[in-house]
């Protein structure tokens, strides 16, 4: 059931360049599924900011979000502190439908601020006994986060655009060299990366998660839409039908 | 306190309704609260055929407001009648359909098709959408075209017609008189103001359509001024809108001369905006010395 709550920040950390990890307390934490997002009110701003869920602690009833400073709104969010309250709409959007999938081996492919939702997904996959391989891309060494956490889920490979850490290049350069079977891939990141990944893995089954400037975040305003691959005269709402889509369902770019 | 308002075709239990385009067809916000609390619901615009809308990005944030250029995305009037409007039937809340088009013929077609719906109580004639290349706003900025489309839709429709005026004109009273002269049952004002925002890094407009409609608190003083001017010139029912976020804003619109109000952009910031405003309205009215909604309408006019 979607709702709006004032939630207390219990931890607020900078974990990489311009990248922040915020954990809040919520009785709804256990209901959040991997791939979903929350819609956060930034004081003094008209539009909320959609931020994906990076982790959930069901016992502590908390969930964690990771975001990067892109503009005024995320800058203001980065200035919050533990003990502050955030006005949050949750849960929003679709999730990676792993409960319906038969899989033994999953490939996670994340780029930049698309990495966080894959961590929560990877944890749930591991709990199900799925073998997880992660390929993560960042701008450079100072932007890398959660490498050790992903390593605890399974083999993890890092690519950086400038070559200051891991392999120089893109996530697709690493995927090309991977010699492992996969049942499904799950990807989240900037649209050019998703285009490259879905093209390279065109013969594999997979799910991708999209981002776009949003208005309402709940499906009423039609601001964030993506055309369908089999009929580009029709579109789907990223905030309500997505943000997770079957890889071949939508037309990217 | 008596919040009820009687307008042509509309018996409202309170004067607050969500504005067209900011509430879809009601389903999503019904997950947040009981739609019976609303005075009415103005649903998203209907055109003759399905429309895809504009490319993305379709929205941008501004100081105290937002720009949007959705481009009238909708599944077409037939599908709206069969697939969307029946959802609202169980609620004790009148529904106002928003009629859009590119040509007079399309407006008439949409209005005629809506005659077969048993789920609506009135039409809002959208001659003021600034975000589509063909049609919409030229009807709202040219009094002769506004007259023609209003007259023909009035002739075609079985429902009362509220004409939604564009603020992108130099004289709002001329436009209001033009549509009232040919039989508009009421006015709905104001739609968004055309605006633009440029991304410094990309050196390009943020919105793919380049221009968008400005809404939110930023435009409230313009809405208040325009309603005030029209109220001085005409005795016609007015549904007022433009940046309402609080019950105090509602009272200000009533004082300017609105008979009822619509809440738009505020829904995005706070999904509970409408029910919260409705809940606070009696207290705010009484705080300013009014005993009912009707008591406050037009009371902001200073007679010289």
Low-confidence stretches of chain B: none
State Rg of chain A.
Answer: 17 Å
Distance between the termini of chain A: 32 Å
Give me the CATH superfamily of chain B. Answer: Aldolase class I
Descriptive report:
The complex is a heterodimer of chains A (253) and B (304). Chain A has helices spanning 72-78, 116-127, 147-151, 171-177, 191-200; strands at 3-16, 19-25, 37-41, 49-57, 62-68, 85-92, 105-111, 131-138, 156-160, 167-168, 184-188, 206-209, 225-227, 235-237, 244-246. Chain A is an alpha/beta fold. The longest helix of chain A has 12 residues, at 116-127. Chain A is globular. Chain A starts with a strand and ends in a 7-residue tail after the last strand. In chain B, helix 5 (143-156) packs parallel to helix 6. The two termini of chain B are 31 Å apart. Chain B has a single domain, classed as Aldolase class I (TIM Barrel, Alpha-Beta Barrel), CATH 3.20.20.70. Chain B has helices at 27-30, 77-84, 104-114, 137-141, 143-156, 172-181, 220-233, 247-256, 266-269, 273-287, 293-296; strands spanning 5-7, 10-12, 16-18, 41-46, 59-62, 65-68, 95-99, 122-126, 161-164, 186-189, 193-196, 198-199, 204-205, 211-215, 238-241, 260-263. The chains are: A alpha/beta (253), B alpha/beta (304).
Layout of helices and strands:
The complex is a heterodimer of chains A (253) and B (304).
Chain A: E1 3-16, E2 19-25, E3 37-41, E4 49-57, E5 62-68, H1 72-78, E6 85-92, E7 105-111, H2 116-127, E8 131-138, H3 147-151, E9 156-160, E10 167-168, H4 171-177, E11 184-188, H5 191-200, E12 206-209, E13 225-227, E14 235-237, E15 244-246
Chain B: E1 5-7, E2 10-12, E3 16-18, H1 27-30, E4 41-46, E5 59-62, E6 65-68, H2 77-84, E7 95-99, H3 104-114, E8 122-126, H4 137-141, H5 143-156, E9 161-164, H6 172-181, E10 186-189, E11 193-196, E12 198-199, E13 204-205, E14 211-215, H7 220-233, E15 238-241, H8 247-256, E16 260-263, H9 266-269, H10 273-287, H11 293-296
Parallel strand pairs in B: 3-16, 4-7, 7-8, 8-9, 9-10, 10-15, 15-16
Antiparallel strand pairs in B: 1-2, 5-6, 6-14, 11-14, 12-13
Helix pairs in contact in B: 3-5, 5-6, 6-7, 7-8, 8-10
